[in-house]
Amino acid sequence: MKAQALEPPFDTFIFDLDGTLLDTLDDLMVLTNDVLAEFDMPTHTREEINSYVGNGAAALIYQAVPADTPPAVADACLARWKEAYDRYPNDLTKPYPGIESMLAELRRHDCRLGILSNKFDRGVTFIVEKCLAGQVDVAHGEGGEGHFPRKPDPTGLLATIEELGSTPARTVYIGDSPGDIHAARNAGCYAVGVDWGYHDPADFAAEGWEPDLLASNPEQIVALAPVAV
């Protein structure tokens, strides 16, 4: 689904997290494989883990465990993964090039900044504090106090927009997956896809969710903001 009748400038920018602001893939691979090994399950390559991410921890684990894994065992593996995440240092995770300067520049343009991720809410809080502390106004994941469902359900995105004191027509939602564009459409926002994340940019058109803008560098996102005064 292609463009809505929204045009820049915009003063509210909400971002997906993994694959959009932060490169978390190496840590996700190490943590997931450590947990799988605890359960005597086969481990996965970086490319395989990459194909599993984007729809939250449950989707990652349920794809990573063998297909014949009993549901109760898969659930135990997921619970162990979340428990381990709380203590895992995530030392391999870092912002993509240009992300921190982009956020600072959007601040200079007096923009409101948020994060909405399909990662479980506690994990979002942890990794944002570690890697992007003080650089956004709000950050939410699946569940949490708002009990937000996973994207593309627009509930979490609309609530985050309201929390920022904005409206969908003034908001850009940015992500690396077709599901992010779907969420933006469902909420009535301007949709930006990025080509540096975990998904092939061709996936946007292939899955029928083309963004209003496909960004190849963070400066293109800053260009959507009002002129700084």
Automatic annotation (TrEMBL):
GO cellular component: cytosol
Keyword Hydrolase: yes
InterPro entries: HAD-like_hydrolase_sf (IPR050155), HAD-like_sf (IPR036412), HAD-SF_hydro_IA (IPR006439), HAD_2 (IPR041492), HAD_sf (IPR023214), PGP-like_dom2 (IPR023198)
Keyword flag Hydrolase: yes
Keywords (A to Z) from UniProt: Hydrolase
GO MF annotations in UniProt: phosphoglycolate phosphatase activity
Name of the molecule in the record: HAD family hydrolase
NCBIfam families: HAD-SF-IA-v1, HAD-SF-IA-v3
GO biological process: DNA repair
Annotated Gene3D superfamilies: HAD superfamily/HAD-like, Putative phosphatase, domain 2
